[in-house]
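Worked example 3 (structure in, sequence out).
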């Protein structure tokens, strides 16, 4: 017969087995911010030759240019490398992905306007490069749409089954937007029908989605996004997430990530990365200025995952990476303890952060 002490030990054992106690890694800036050569909306990826390829949107005499830069020292310096396309209209939101065969894809928004500046067509376009991003050719247009409802901010990754997953946002009304995913089995030439990963059944502007793998005992994906849920068409914006346990086929478990401090302040434009098993989320927020003129007054910040259990993640250790005005932050994992945060602060910048 067990003693009273051993009886209570048996009662507590399941609790100890199934409860996760954790603290977020502590992030700190690692060196100074580095110019990526100007432009805005910076994103980057690592190539099979171990160099980094970055993409920004630059501007010249009314022309938008999807510009490619390269780094051979993990983002400490960047050099011009090429351009994907240029044109008059609204060409922006570049995102890069290297395929297993070495070919590079760049997805971006590719919208046309008339002489008065009104949108005439919305597109998500994909271009392809066979020389590590030096030269590019048109590949496909996963979706087009007519005004007034736009298409925004593509994000790509390769799933466990080898298919490309493309996430982006589709406007349904001025106060309603969903995040979607499409799949390609032929290197981005053709795409499946779209399915909604967040925003279905609610009126909210879900957008600017970013996706990363994580493991809380089960392999999962997390998708972070900005949303106006609970507010109006103009905000305030906050950061939420959904998760998938089947590699992006289905999504659920909608949860809070970050809400700006203060009254009617905003947090938006998130991205997420896995850094040595820790999740890092980036975003921009005007909580330090309270200008209420979103996106004016925003700084770029990150947080680190504290706990992960059954598809839910909690976050701690907020760090300001780029001061006001820092827009459209992106993330790229450098190694198991370093992440690169990219943002527009008077031009595209990259800033390494170390997790300890």
């Amino acid at each position: 017969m067990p003693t009273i002490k051993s009886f209570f030990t048996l009662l507590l054992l399941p609790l100890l087995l199934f409860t996760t106690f954790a603290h977020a890694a502590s992030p700190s800036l690692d060196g100074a911010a580095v110019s990526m050569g100007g432009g805005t909306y910076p994103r980057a990826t690592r190539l099979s030759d171990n160099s980094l390829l970055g993409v920004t949107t630059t501007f010249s005499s009314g022309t938008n240019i999807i510009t490619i830069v390269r780094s051979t020292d993990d983002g400490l310096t960047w050099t011009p490398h090429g351009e994907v396309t240029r044109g008059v209209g609204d060409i922006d939101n570049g995102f890069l992905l290297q395929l297993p065969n070495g070919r590079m894809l760049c997805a971006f928004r590719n919208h046309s306007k008339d002489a008065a500046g009104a949108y005439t067509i919305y597109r998500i376009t994909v271009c392809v490069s066979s020389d590590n991003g030096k030269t590019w050719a048109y590949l496909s247009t996963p979706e087009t749409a007519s005004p007034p409802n736009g298409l925004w901010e593509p994000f790509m990754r390769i799933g466990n089954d080898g298919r490309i997953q493309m996430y982006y946002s589709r406007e349904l009304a001025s106060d309603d937007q969903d995040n979607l995913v499409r799949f390609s089995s032929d290197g981005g030439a053709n795409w499946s029908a779209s399915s909604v990963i967040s925003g279905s059944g609610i009126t909210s502007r879900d957008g600017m989605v970013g996706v990363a793998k994580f493991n809380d005992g089960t392999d999962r994906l997390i998708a972070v996004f900005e949303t106006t849920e609970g507010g109006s068409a103009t905000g305030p914006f906050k950061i939420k997430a959904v998760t998938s346990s089947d590699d992006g086929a289905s999504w659920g478990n909608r949860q809070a990530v970050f809400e700006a401090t203060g009254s009617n302040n905003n947090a938006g434009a998130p991205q997420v990365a896995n850094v040595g098993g820790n999740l890092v989320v980036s975003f921009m927020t005007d909580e330090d200025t309270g200008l209420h003129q979103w996106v004016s007054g925003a700084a770029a910040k990150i947080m680190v995952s504290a706990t992960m259990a059954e598809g839910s993640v909690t976050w701690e250790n907020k760090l300001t990476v780029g001061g006001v005005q820092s827009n459209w932050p992106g993330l790229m994992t450098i190694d198991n303890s370093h992440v690169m945060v990219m943002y527009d602060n008077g031009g595209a910048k990259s800033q390494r952060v170390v997790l300890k």
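Notes: The first strand starts at residue 27 and ends at 29. The first helix runs from residue 4 to 18.
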